[in-house]
Amino acid sequence: MDILASLNPQQRLAVEHGRGPALVLAGAGSGKTRVIVHRIAYLIRNGAARPEHILAVTFTNKAAQEMRERVHALLGRGRTAEPLIATFHSFCVRVLRREIHRIGYKRDFSIYDTDDQRRLIKQILEEERRPEKETAPREILGRISFAKNHNIPAAVFAHRFPSADADLLQHLYTAYNDRLRRANALDFDDLLLKTVDVLERFPEVRDRCQEEYRFILVDEYQDTNRPQYDVLQLLAGKHQNVFVVGDEDQSIYKFRGANIRNILNFEKDFPGARIIKLEQNYRSTQTILDVAGAVVANNTERKGKTLWTDNARGDVVTCYRSHSARSEAEWIAAQIRTALREGPDSRLAILYRTNALSRNFEDVLMQYGIPFVVVGSVGFFNRMEVKDLLAYLRAAYNPEDDIALLRIINTPPRGIGGTTTELLTRNALDKGVPVCQALRESLQDTRLSVRAQRALARFHETLDGWIAKARDVSAGALLEEIIAQVGYHEMLKQRDSAQEAADRIANVDELVRAAYESGERGESALDFLDRASLSSELDQLDANARVALLTVHSAKGLEFDVVFLAGMEEGLFPHFQSRDAKEDLEEERRLCYVGMTRARRKLFLTWTPHRRRFGQDSETAALPSRFLKEVPAELVEGLELETPYTMMDKESEYGQEWHYGKAGRSADDTEQPRSLAELRTYLAKLQSGKHGAAAGGGRQLKTGMRVRHAQFGEGIILSRERTGNDYKLTIFFSLAGRKTLMEGYAKLQPL
DNA sequence: GATTTACGCCTTTTT
DNA sequence: GGCGTAAATC
């Protein structure tokens, strides 16, 4: 296969780039990944680099996996050495598992995820008897992570961020780091920071890494943060063979410390860099590109580039306003059904700003019998039972891992309750030792009841057994033994409903299987735990799934034939947290751009003024997202942005909330009955009125008409609204309840 | 010490 | 509407 044949001139230029730094500014859908993949293949095929000297870095495991597969497809499998294709984090873990002893950690360190971090902070707060109200763990962790992402050590925190509570935060930041170290544990941010630390302080490690990874390629460069940038600088320091690909319009991780300046300053950081722009888009229709481009053009912080495509103009973009979140979901489900009927092989996605929005879509798709996958809500590795068992493993391999130990110490219940664990943690704190050691030393503590002492001794003995076993038994076998020994299944069966217990047991079995499989692939137990810590739900997104539900963030780098960008409302998208600061707003706009450019053929934008928040009807009607107003009207149908039933405050400006009171929802023809009693009155009214007469002899559907649906049975039409070329019907079915259907394909039979 | 119930908080986005 | 923590009860 000719590696260069299928490339356009710019892509080819990038792929053929020789040594030295290069920056590829690649617009959405312009073949970013393609360039990296082909360059890897080109370097190897040409003999310019040996595979083992190549390191390609991505942001998600999924992207890494896909890249690996595509390289294999180009080169064929079965070569002796492979290029290393990894995420920043997994690359760092790889380095640290080998080198971290140099900075005083043990090789079998634990990796703390967000949940572990939260537990640790809470524990610290508890020990210091600080009320959580004034110091929300989330908030604290957010600020610690912010500091870490900007490379600000605890020692200088208060100095760098002077504020009322700076000293307190510096104290907590320090305590948190100390406790991580004592637990022989690293959080996500530490993985990067400690790698930088090792590379900076130990020239021999740096030299070896520089020789090992002579060619470095980075995907999504616009999303690198400071520590990632440092890692890159240190690795590339000698050979300067850095090849980065990015798009400043798709920088959406500022909140995580991503620094857009990394891409804007690349030429300065790597002198003599070659810049290549990829502006031809291969993914979307011209219409979609124009719409997305018009939105992002409102940003000022960009280098500016214009995407073009040879693709057809394609369909107009469709906008749809619904009267509730529920009907938004129903309308989308109906569109999906049509789309799948017309093109059974299409891949579709519903994208939304926050995960909380997925629920309605899940419910309705389920109801419609449309198979789908949800990305990101509660991932496999985030399930409680899976985390419990991983904590058991962690405790066995790294007994100093306090958070893991405290998680399992009384799960399932074994008579070690709050009083006892509090004594343990207090002892550990006083002596400055991990909890496992405090456990050993507290066995005879007279402050404990005999019963508690006995329970502790028993747990201690079992734990020692696992620690010993961990040395010579596989992760799968150890896990299986632990599950049996502690009676984990029994706990689930006893605690949860039969159905829930069965689900959880299935997950447990799945985990055991995964552990065994990992072992059979030759991975160590630590490899297995690493993968569990660093994997995300996204990685499990099945490429064959027809319909996917995911956040816009998760969708970056993916593409779909049809995209529904839902919840296009002020406050939601852009999110109200981001609407004030200009740079935050620009990030929201880029996010919107990312969402829109995921679509190949057709883009839908949906919103509703009446979305429930926290299960309550909001007192204020939502406004359409300002991004909808930035869209060229001639390319979009159904763009009804005025809210007729909103009584506007005369002085109101965009961005303020408009109040409309309870009259709001009954002011147009989409009025819906709220209760059964109301429904009866409503139906009576409809039937006695002129609607009830239906179109004499005509087949045309009218409000109030009784109809039969193949699936839902008999019902009565509550409303009929034009949308595009079709009519949207709201029908109350006596068996199935209220449904919203599209007339065009609902195959309704008038009665 | 464990289990059940009430209440309050909540929502960005992710490795 | 849902989850996790805190009080109340067994």
| Distance N to C terminus | 63 Å
Percent helix: 40-55%
Strand order of the largest sheet: 13-14-12-15-16-11-17
Mean pLDDT: 83
Q: Write down how many β-strands occur, each being a DSSP E stretch of 2 or more residues.
A: 22
Low-confidence segments: 644-698
Task: Describe it.
The chain is α/β, with parallel strands linked by helices and 751 residues long. Helices cover 45% and strands 14% of the residues. The chain has 30 helices and 22 strands. The protein has a 7-stranded parallel sheet. A 6-stranded parallel sheet has the order 3-2-6-7-1-8, with helices on both faces. The termini are far apart. The structure holds a DNA duplex (15 and 10 nucleotides).
